[in-house]
Each structure stands twice: as C-alpha cells, then as structure tokens.
Please model this.
Amino acid sequence: MTPQEENFMRKIEAEEKIEPKDWMPEAYRKNLIRQISQHAHSEVIGMQPEGNWITRAPSLRRKAVLLSKVQDEAGHGLYLYSACETLGISRSEMIEQLQTGKAKYSSIFNYPTLTWADVGAIGWLVDGAAIVNQVSLQRTSYGPYSRGMIRICKEESFHQRQGYEAMLALAKGSPEQKAMAQDALNRFYWPALMMFGPHDSESAHSQKSMEWKIKRETNDDLRQKFVDQTVKQIEVLGLEHPDKNIKWNEERGHYDSSDLNWDEFWSVINGNGHCNRQRIEHHVAAHDEGEWVRDAISAYNEKKRAKKAQNAA
Amino acid sequence: MTNITEKLELFEVFVRSKRGLDHKHVGSLHAEDHEQALEYARDCYTRRSEGVSIWVVKSADICASQEDDADCFYDPSDDKPYRHATYYVLPDPVNNM
Model:
C-alpha cells in the first residue's frame, strides 16, 4: 500500500469521512459515482410513475400531498447530483449516461402505476424500502453523500406515511376500494423487495463497497429488515400478505419468506420491464423541451457580458 | 446536449434555521445569478420552514485552506497548550472556575 492508500484506509477504519479534496483510490471514486448517480437518477425518474396521477388524484388534499412529494423527489435528485459532482463528474455527463442507458436507475420505476392505489403503495412500500436503505447510508464513508442522505431521510418519512394513509383509506373503504388496495400491494410488494438488489453472493460491487464503508449493511440484511417491518403494516391494513410463505422464525428472530423471482429482476434491469423505454423517452423529451429555456439563459448571459464590456470601455 | 449546468455558476447555500443561530452550509446549486440562486435555494432547501435567512455564495469565491497541509498550517498553535483552560491546575475547591 502506498502512504496515500494507508492514510485513506486509516480514515475509513477510524470512521472518519472522506471529503471531496481528499486523496481517494480511483476505484472508490468510480464506485461512488456509479452508486450516487444511480441514486440521483432514481429520484428523478421516480417522479414519472407518481406524476402520472397528479391530475387524477381523488381529492384536492391528495393532489397537494402528491405534488409536494414529487417536488421533494426533484429536490432529492438535486442533492444527490450535487454530491456526485464533487467527485469530478458533471451534471450533463450524468444525464447523458442516464439517457444512453450507461447509468441505471432503480428498476422499481419501470413498473406502471395502473390505479390510484398504486400511488399509495409506492409511498408506503417503495419509499419505505428506500428509507431502510437510506437510513443505513447516512453512515456512508463519503461526506457529501452522507450529508445528502441525512437531509433526504428527514424529508422522506412523510412520503411513506402519506402513502400508508392513502392505502388505509382504501383498505377501510368499499369492497372495490379494498380490492384495489390489495391488488396494488400484490403487484408492488415483490418489486419493492427487489429494490435492495441481488443476493449478497450475486452482488458485483458489494464486497468492495462494504470494505470501503460506502455501503454499511448488505442487500440481504436490509431486505430482511424491510420484510420484518412490513408484516405488521399489512396486518393493520387488514390486507392479505402477498407472500404465502411468510412465517416468524423464533430462532433467527426474523420472518422467513419466499425467494424472489430473480429472472424478472434481471430482465427489468436489462431493459425489458414494462416502462423502461417510456421512462427514458419521457426524460429525453422533457430535456429537449427545455432547450429554449437553456438557450434563453445563454442569450441573456451573452447580453449581460456585452453590456458589462461596454460599460467597462 | 447543451451543457447548461456548466454555463451556470455554482453557488454554495447557507441557511440560518433560527434567529440567534449561525448560518450553516446546507448544499450547493447551479444558478444564473445571486438572485436566482436565492430563489432556487428557497425552493430546494427551505420547503419545510427550515430557515429564516439564506446566504448564497459563488463557490468560486470561496478560498479554502488545504486539508492536506493541515499539519503545517495549524502548526503555530500546536505548541501552545497554555491556551487551553485545562492547562491550569487549580486547587479542588475552586476548580469549577
């Protein structure tokens, strides 16, 4: 190990944060850029499935809440892009990687939102799973990422609670509403579990990430946490658990559950989910439609520069 | 693709959460000028009444000490333990001074 590497590892082992100007191994930087940009893209793409329901929210209150949540996701994207930029990659490079498929985003957002109940299920389950992951990432070794996570966690709790509340309203409503809630739970439960990524044994980046304390808990441990906390929540809703094999294991102190459909997982990651193409096409279209705003800013900048030069002369 | 965010300047945002407290660094954003940076900062960092006052500073205007040079940079104060209260040993009955 070089003295630089030693110094770096000493900080990691002492639970000191790594800051942007510090020396870091190139692989650490790359690994972080991959993870943080993927996280940022997820926040931004994640606005689409929910945005789909803003105009059709069942009441003014639900509409205001949903708008507010989607606005938060945009803000979270910004925090994460900013954190990632401190590693020496530009915003436009990241956006290009997203649009060309070089960078990934969470596969959960490739599932369609078919009914209003899906919006509730997303807040409750998808944001719930994200929170389990993000709480753990508050202790990540890279300073700007850690600070971003702390800020995001503070804001995200409302996302999960509003989703659960919406589910509760449906579950306690008419038989049709309850069936709609059950259907949304059945469809989103499994993809939510997949959000934690492949099994530890299959996870390409896990080991190095744990060693460098980028990740603090493994995919399977985090997934177990989520499985455990969700059982009671389903019970309170009075809905049926989608996993017929869910069973308390006294010895482990955890719930046992079915294995996931990993073929589906890899298929969606590799671009064959219901909405992969639509999500990226929409992102590209929105970006292109904003071109005139960027042009206007450039023109205004030019005008200001010219005026300044004229005044100076 | 237009590299608009590279054309826009980077600003650091500081928020005072309550009167009487310091402004604290909360993050950064790209904006056209100070005025726009303030508005973006309001929309992004104070959506839940997190602040009563916001500062925005162009990142390029911040002059920072180098952490790698910390040893020699802070060296002049390292050999002055008498600047610390604990340096002075006083009799027990008055040691809470």
Notes: Chain B has a mean pLDDT of 87. The first strand of chain B starts at residue 9 and ends at 16. The domain at 1-61 of chain B is CATH 3.10.20.520 (Ubiquitin-like (UB roll)).
